[in-house]
Specification:
single chain, 210 residues, alpha+beta, Ribosomal Protein S5, domain 2, Alpha-Beta Plaits, five-stranded antiparallel beta sheet, four-stranded antiparallel beta sheet, 5 helices, elongated, Impact_N_sf
Length: 210
């Protein structure tokens, strides 16, 4: 079985002011670099007038699978987004490292309030943004997951949905020309679930890694 790890329970935010500057910290679970960057982009879109949006994440650099559950390297990344070098991105990332949290993305928004905080003041503010957002959601134990897409005709969609619900896995469904399910499942259970879906539909499902 793949080893469990610490991550955040769900997306959360926390806000506060320091010398007139408003800070809003966000954290969210993320299994891939693409998912982490999507959260950062979403935060930037929500705050188009922000002076800075400082991101940081610790996520797998590749995709876990049943064949390589423990071989995916962890990517750690951050940016100062225009703040003085080393004053913001690294302090934000350090919170995640010090709390041993992974598969997580953070972004701290700043609206400048007219007073320069200095490198030390910025470091305290940006780390506080991440800490308070983590505190708002809480830390949980999780195991490596993988995602795959299941495409099926409408006639078999009820069978597939019923299996996914009975297995209590996370999924999103899209009903268009065909029915597509995006499934998130623990790595250790993925192969068995794929086989069950194929058997239940006599092979009439198209399953692709995501």
């Amino acid at each position: 079985m793949p080893e469990s790890f610490r991550t955040v329970a769900e997306r959360a935010e926390a806000s506060f002011e320091v010398s007139g500057s408003e800070f809003i910290g966000y954290v969210a679970p993320a299994d891939t670099v693409e998912a982490a960057e999507a959260v950062i982009e979403e935060v930037e879109t929500e705050h188009p007038e922000a002076t800075h949006v400082v991101p940081a994440y610790r996520v797998p650099a590749g995709t876990a699978s049943a064949d390589q559950p423990g071989s995916v390297m962890l990517r750690e990344w951050c940016s100062d987004d225009g703040e003085p070098s080393g004053s913001s991105g690294k302090p934000a990332l350090n919170v995640l490292v010090q709390q041993d949290i992974r598969n997580v993305v953070a972004a701290v928004v700043r609206y400048y309030g007219g007073t320069n905080l200095g490198v030390g003041g910025l470091a305290r503010a940006y780390s506080r943004g991440v800490k308070e957002a983590v505190d708002a959601t809480g830390v949980v134990e999780d195991v490596p997951h993988e995602q795959f897409e299941v495409a099926v005709d409408y006639n078999d969609s009820g069978t597939v949905r019923g299996i996914l619900e009975s297995e209590d896995v996370e999924f999103d469904a899209s009903y268009e020309a065909a029915v597509e399910f995006v499934v998130r499942v623990p790595v250790a259970e993925a192969n068995a679930l794929r086989e069950r879906l194929r058997d239940a539909t006599s092979g009439r499902v198209d399953i692709e890694a995501r």
